[in-house]
Amino acid sequence: MSESSNVTILGKIIIVLFILGCFVGAYYLFTKGANTPPPSGTASSPGPIAKSEKKSVRIGIAYGTEKKRWLESAVEEFAQAPEGKGIEVKLIPMGSLESAKAILSGDERIHVWSPASALYKDVFVQDWQVKHSSDPIIRSENLALTPMVFVMWEERYQAFAGKFQALSFKTISEALKEKGGWDAIAGKPEWGFFKFGHTDPNQSNSGLMTLVLMAYDYYGHCKDLTLKEILGVPFQNWLQDFERGVSGLVHSTGTMMRDMVLKGPSTYDALMVYENVAIDYLKNAEGRWGTLRVVYPERNAWNENPYYVLNAPWSSEDQREAASTFLEFLLSEPIQKRSLVHGFRPGNPSVAIKFPSSPFVIYEQYGLKIDIPAVCDPPKAEVINNLLASWLRNQRAR
Predict the structure, then answer these.
(1) Residue 168, class by beta-carbon neighbours within 10 Å (0-12 exposed, 13-18 middle, 19+ buried)?
(2) pLDDT-based confidence at 319, cuts 50/70/90?
(3) Alpha-carbon distance 250 to 252, whole Å?
(4) Sign of torsion over alpha carbons 176, 177, 180, 186
(5) CA gap 23, 41 in Å, rounded
(6) Which of 199, 129, 186 is nearest to 160 (CA)?
(7) Is pLDDT above 60 for 32?
(8) CB of 103 within 8 A of CB of 110?
(9) Rounded-to-integer distance, Cα 385 and Cα 371, Å
(10) CA angle 253-254-258, nearest 5°?
(11) Distances (CA, A) of 341 to 9, 139, 148, 179, 259
């Protein structure tokens, strides 16, 4: 074969290899290159991988319904805020003790526990440690403060004060025992029996707090409530007589207050509720059944509305971080100012309470006060447990 023939054949081979190389390159570009991220600074539409990389964290917050209006508005605003991107907050309305029991039972929906107060915290922690040998709370902050108050229809308050002078646990006890009801109290037989309500102490913090304040008031002091005092026969008899006349015993303070305003004096003459719940319904009541009167018990206690980030086995690191992010949002000045609109005393000390448009100034005529009487200490866990046990025993005996 001549030299020119060899060159011709070699040229053909090179051309064929070049064509094959072009086909291979085109195939790679269309099958592999489509999923290659573009260089930095170039625009592209998000493909399937971009969507899968977007992180979304969901947290569940078990909370008392006294915070319902405030928290719902805060969650809506958080969803639109930059810090809320990728975080879904699910509010789970439950009684404070009810939610504690749910967490102890392993309710995996709950990553944050926000009861009305820290009253039941020691009991909860002790029960958790027995079961898990660890601390259930990794972060704790107080969102907003509110004390306990009696709330009563103004007309009936004036009639009550005409006979008993003051509204207190002792005078309420006397009114509940009046066999002639309002006829014996104020010559008003059409009002029926005297009706006083508080929530179920076995489910709701406000009901348990009511029992604690009743005990403190009975013994006339405000700290170091003892097991001996709780088990004392005179106190047990007085508590049993008192509770026989109590109406309601619902699980939610907010629901109970709503029923009073919705249905009027035929349901309740007086309640013991959180101050913020009373404030939230003052104007609503006036437009339906008349004016309400707020009265502070002689011995009171703070409900701090704590926010507990849980150290639960089902709570991931991302969920704990998201829970802390939402906590910081709740403590910010704009959101704290909104808590004041709903009757809370903000947990952020930089937010003022007393100013012309504050509800504590606007509603002062209803009996609201910024300064409250003596504040009692929370009893020890063993005292709480036995007080609750004695109440449950009396309920079963009814």
Answers:
(1) middle
(2) very high
(3) 6
(4) negative
(5) 30
(6) 186
(7) no
(8) yes
(9) 31
(10) 120
(11) 92, 26, 18, 41, 21
